[in-house]
Amino acid sequence: MDNPQNSSTEKQKMLKGEYYNSFEESLLYDRKRAKKLCQQLNAIPDGSQGERSKIIQNLLQTDKQVWIESPFRCDYGYNIEVGDNFYANFGCIILDCNLVKIGDNVKFGPNVQVYAATHPTNPEERIAGKEMAYPITIGDNVWIGGGSIILPGVTIGNNSVIGAGSIVTKNIPENVVAVGNPCRVLRSINC
């Protein structure tokens, strides 16, 4: 018999990077809330800054200065921690099944995708519905070029630039320009 003190909720398992059931009732409810807020945000015409800001702050549960162009999609919203002066261009997707921490003065080009969510490589485990998620950290003053994809568990250091179209599969240090698939350091930035 399981010890109730050792049992975790599906949300707790998700945030610990353990296998979890994404179809658990409270997670479904939270995703439905985020989907509704994303739909509201995406339906607002360009230029409606006040209304857009209110929805973004509600979705991300922040009071920071944030601007996200439409269309935008995320899983939960509340697992996205943003610093001041964050900007995401058109077509951003953040699968925030674990913490996605974004520093101050970060800029995303169009169609940047951030995936904390992942699935087992074993097909039987995938078929059984197992999922996992690993945190992503993007430091201060980072620029992510358009069409880049950030994979689960990655950290990008302060002041770094990720070239357009890059697939970031491993940690990127501070103060570098990194590009490619897989993304690799091209050169240092003298700050």
From TrEMBL:
SUPFAM superfamilies: Trimeric LpxA-like enzymes (SSF51161). The keyword Protein transport does not apply. The keyword Transferase applies. PROSITE patterns: HEXAPEP_TRANSFERASES (PS00101). Gene3D superfamilies: Hexapeptide repeat proteins. InterPro entries: Hexapep (IPR001451), Hexapep_transf_CS (IPR018357), LacA-like (IPR039369), Mac_dom (IPR024688), Trimer_LpxA-like_sf (IPR011004). Residues 11-65 form the Maltose/galactoside acetyltransferase domain. Belongs to the transferase hexapeptide repeat family. This is Acetyltransferase.
